[in-house]
Design brief:
The structure holds two protein chains of two kinds. By secondary structure, chain A is mainly α. Chain A has 24 helices and four strands. Chain B contains eleven helices and 14 strands. Helices cover 28% and strands 12% of the residues of chain B. By secondary structure, chain B is an alpha/beta fold. The chains are: A mainly alpha, B alpha/beta. Chains A and B meet through helix 4, helix 6, helix 10, helix 13 and helix 18 of A and helix 1, strand 1, helix 4, strand 9 and helix 6 of B.
Chain lengths: 432, 488
């Protein structure tokens, strides 16, 4: 790599900043580059300090209590939920823009797509907020603890029907998705395991008076269950501890994180073998660090291996352009197909080519035009036209434009807003 | 049955994994790991396959997307510029003949409960298994043979009485998979025993000259069904289609997305989707301008973003940002999608395949009201769509196919819902459809671990559509011969 502050290292750190955050501003990159790559990894992983985003405290979310049964009372409660929902989205977007601990918010986003839960069914902004806070406080801790906390949180209890899972005729919704999507992956459990796991979770519920988890012993099936080879009167907690402790779960989680931070792989990929040791018994922070330090993390496969999800694209653009997240940002994200707190299904948001349809291209261009129109581009305006494409590359953290992109951008250089809009939809910015 | 992969579809088994049950993880793992660098020289096709494979597996929800598109030699030479695509109906396709077949795929996400859709209300085993969730014989809309439609499906009942609704019973595939994502991928790929990265209609698209207007997915992304190995559908959201920023920005954008092919596969996809957008915006924009504005319940301002929801979508208004918050969201999103399709058809679009969808069918709890509401949305949207086509010759060849990824368990759970099951009914409707029952009703007593045994292979439905709507050779696309069903 040569000079620790040379162009290769600078490019590597910019890549690191995109993958473990939402991209580095030029000043942030300037500050990190002299220390070299490994120091930059340490810097991004140092998340114990205060977060600048705390300066913007969360609104007070609450479950609207309906007085009486009148249509008017219900409508008022529903209007309250809608207002809180908009506040919730804006609050998190602002937090991602303002954060000084970008890895924390990046992990919240990653886990939100992993334990994908939608307000469409959960309905209560408070529950979605509480889940979001769990992802923030536990997202770099032990995976078993994270899974347990998410499983027993009101949002998940409602989302996958644990709240109505009782003995006799158990509801399999949570048990199946726990193993298929959250911890093991398809092929690592049987249909009988789904049925047995569902029995383990009977009796779990949500106490609507306290908005918290409750265990109802009389609705719990306390008979012997056989789950993944282990037999006993297994509780829901036992089931989560069991499945997250399996070797298959380690491979699954490692593959999942690599796929979202580097490029998509199968759990059979050799890179997973390289990383399961660092993950150990579920240490997410150690895994993230090992991913960032893995040679293939900085390979060409990785550089060209991920399309920015709309939220990443939006937050990165707002940070680079010095814009706050307004409520239009939430509306733009709806058009772009990724509204926070509304994943399309329990499977979360797909990756990469999913975001490259003709419809995505149109929504992205519209949003880019809007953002460029809002931004203060006076620094760009005072730059010589010939130098403007390079200046925009630096602003957006792009190493360099391809010849074709550079040519198209040069044509637009006389109009800084058009120039920035085009840069925001360029392949170099969208794919990296 | 010869299950071998269709010729258009390269081998796609993940190495070292057993077929079917051990198939693709619905997580982030690709069906086809990207080729190791240097392992072999990457042909363009190999790159495309690897790319689409990672997308397919990562997609999970059955919403996948776009391999890069090979420029067909017959495509217009001015592709990408968008400047000379003014002829109505697209840059490379002749206008459709009156009555020429058009497929409208309508996918119900979440696993629609087939037994409470086409209801065996007279069967004691049904009443016993379903308990409080059962519909009584007096509740359903009778079709004969002991079956009746869900009470929400009044419009479909009228179509049935008019002999324009085909009900294909017991549709499924061998070794049913109860994962939403894997089972939907099976339905959309039409390859049940191993993961592949193309869809059945996408493989038909591969046989056609490239034209981004040929197939349109209504929504933000393209479902696997419409993804081919070398081409795939455009995605069009309901709502305005114009590029922002006026002519100068559009011209600069056209140049930007005409980028060189030397970039990475994903970078090339950015370019391809952009250049296709320029063509679709221009061509479809003209088509839609020729037809009246929407009058259906969905309106034109909906963005389709939650089509693939796996869980129950409540009737409560969606939580859109400022501006939309005051608007009641009781609108029927499917109606909005089908309104766009109707306008495109009546406006003379050359599109042969459309994809639409409705979510909210994953009814593990409190099923009865939820499913009734979702089926009412389907009923309203579908019947108003067919009514809009009326007797117009441009709509005479339209065939709508309605399916879900699986039905649900015969026995209800204690949450007032049902868990993931197997076979279910498929609806086929359209002006040229021969109504009536096709396939046998599955037994409610001869079960497989509590689930229905399928009686009709889903590929028979597809074979019928491919042969008699699209005029294609089904065997080449489905990798085997499946008895057609005669509904068209």
């Amino acid at each position: 790599m040569g000079d620790p502050a040379g162009p290769d290292v600078r490019s590597d750190i910019a890549h690191l900043g995109r993958r473990l955050g939402f991209g580095l501003r030029p000043s942030e990159l300037d500050a990190l580059a002299p220390g070299g790559y490994e120091a930059a990894v340490e810097d991004l992983l140092a998340v114990s300090g205060p977060d600048a985003a705390d300066a913007n405290p969360a609104p007070a979310f609450s479950v609207p209590r309906v007085a009486g049964t009148s249509v008017e009372a219900r409508q008022a409660a529903e209007a309250d939920r809608r207002r809180q929902s908009v506040e919730l989205v804006t609050w998190w977007l602002r937090r991602m823009v303002a954060t000084s601990l970008p890895l924390v918010e990046k992990m919240v986003l990653l886990w939100h797509g992993h334990f994908a839960t939608s307000i469409q069914k959960v309905r209560e902004p408070l529950y979605m907020y509480d889940q979001n806070q769990i992802l923030r406080s536990s997202g770099l801790g032990r995976f078993t603890d994270l899974t347990m906390a998410v499983a027993k949180d009101p949002a998940m209890l409602v989302w996958l029907d644990s709240n109505s899972n009782v003995k006799g005729h158990p509801n399999e919704n949570f048990a199946r998705e726990l193993m298929e999507l959250f911890t093991l992956g398809i092929g690592n459990y049987s249909e009988d395991d789904v049925k047995e796991a569902a029995r383990c979770f009977t009796g779990w519920g949500l106490d609507r008076a306290s908005d918290s988890f409750v265990f109802r012993p009389r609705q719990h099936d306390d008979g012997a269950k056989t789950l993944l080879g282990r037999t006993g009167d297994l509780s829901g907690e036992d089931a989560i501890t069991l499945v997250t402790g399996l070797a298959a779960s380690a491979r699954f989680v490692v593959g999942r994180l690599w796929s979202h931070l580097a490029y998509p792989v199968a759990t059979t990929d050799p890179v997973v073998d390289d990383l399961v040791g660092a993950y150990g018994h579920g240490d997410v922070a150690a895994l993230v660090k090992a991913i960032a330090l893995h040679p293939r993390f900085r390979s060409a496969d990785a550089r060209n291996g991920l399309v920015k999800q709309p939220i990443e694209w939006m937050i990165g653009s707002l940070r680079a352009l010095g814009l706050p997240a307004d409520t239009r940002a939430g509306a733009d994200l709806r058009s772009l197909g990724q509204t926070p707190f509304e994943p399309p299904s329990v499977g979360g948001w797909p990756q990469n080519a999913y975001w490259l349809s003709t419809a995505s291209a149109l929504a992205r261009l519209r949003s880019a035009t809007r953002l460029a129109g809002l931004a203060d581009l006076s620094a760009l305006t005072s730059t010589a036209e010939a130098d403007r494409p390079a200046a925009v590359a630096r602003l957006l953290g792009v190493d360099a434009w391809s010849a074709a992109t550079a040519s198209a951008l040069s044509d637009a250089a006389a109009n800084p807003k058009a120039l920035v809009a085009l840069a925001l939809v360029s392949a170099e910015y969208v794919v990296n | 049955v010869d299950d071998s992969l269709p010729p258009a579809d390269p081998p796609a088994d993940p190495p070292g994994e057993a077929p079917d049950q051990a198939a693709v993880p619905a997580d982030a793992g690709p069906a086809v790991p990207p080729p190791a660098p240097g392992a072999r020289s990457l042909s363009r096709r190999t790159v495309l396959v690897a790319l689409a494979g990672s997308a397919a597996a990562a997609a999970g929800a059955g919403w996948v997307l776009l391999p890069d598109r090979r420029r067909a030699s017959t495509a217009s030479p001015d592709r990408g510029s968008g400047s000379a695509t003014a002829s109505l109906g697209g840059s490379s396709s002749a206008p459709l003949r009156p009555g020429e077949g058009i497929v409208v795929l309508l996918t119900l996400y979440g696993g629609n409960d087939g037994l409470n859709t086409v209801v065996p209300a007279g069967d004691p085993a049904y009443l016993q298994g379903r308990g409080a969730l059962a519909y009584q014989a007096a509740d359903v809309l009778p079709l004969g043979e002991g079956l009746g439609l869900n009470p929400s499906l009044t419009g479909l009942k009228a179509l049935w009485d008019d002999h324009r609704l085909a009900v294909v019973r017991g549709v499924g595939y061998p070794n049913p998979n109860r994962s939403h994502f894997r089972s939907m991928d099976i339905w959309q790929s039409a390859v049940p025993d191993r993961p592949v990265i193309t869809g059945w209609l996408g493989r038909w698209l591969d046989t056609q000259p490239h034209d981004p207007m040929r197939a349109i997915a209504v929504g933000g992304s393209v479902p696997l069904a419409l993804v081919g190995a070398t081409t795939s559908a455009a995605a069009v959201n309901v709502g305005p289609l114009t590029l922002p920023g006026g002519a100068p920005l559009a011209a600069a954008y056209s140049k930007l997305v005409a980028a060189s092919a030397s970039d990475s596969p994903l970078a090339r996809l950015v370019a391809t989707s952009g250049s296709d957008l320029v063509i679709v915006e221009h061509t479809l924009g003209q088509v839609l301008a020729a037809t009246p504005e929407a009058t259906a319940a969905g309106g034109t301002s909906l963005e389709v973003g939650q089509a693939a929801t796996s869980s129950v979508a409540p009737a409560s208004p969606t939580t859109t940002a400022k501006g939309a918050a005051t608007k009641p969201a009781a609108a029927n999103a499917l109606a909005g999608q089908l309104d766009l399709v109707a306008r495109a058809i009546l406006g003379g679009a050359t599109t042969r395949v459309y994809a639409t969808s409705l979510g909210g069918f994953d009814t593990h709890a409190n099923e009865k009201a939820t499913q009734a509401r979702q089926l009412a949305l389907l009923d309203e949207a579908l019947t108003s769509f067919l009514g809009r086509l009326g007797t117009d010759p441009r709509g005479a060849g339209v065939v709508v196919v309605v399916h879900s990824e699986f039905g649900r368990r015969v026995a209800a759970n204690a949450s007032g819902g049902t868990d993931h099951g197997t076979a279910g009914p498929v609806f086929v409707a359209g002006p040229s459809v021969r109504g009536g029952f096709y396939g046998a009703e599955p037994s409610l007593t001869d079960l497989d671990a509590g689930d229905l045994k399928f009686t009709t292979d889903f590929r028979s439905v597809y074979a019928t559509v491919l042969a008699h709507v699209l005029g294609a050779d089904p065997a080449a696309i489905l990798g085997g011969r499946f008895a057609p069903l005669g509904f068209v």
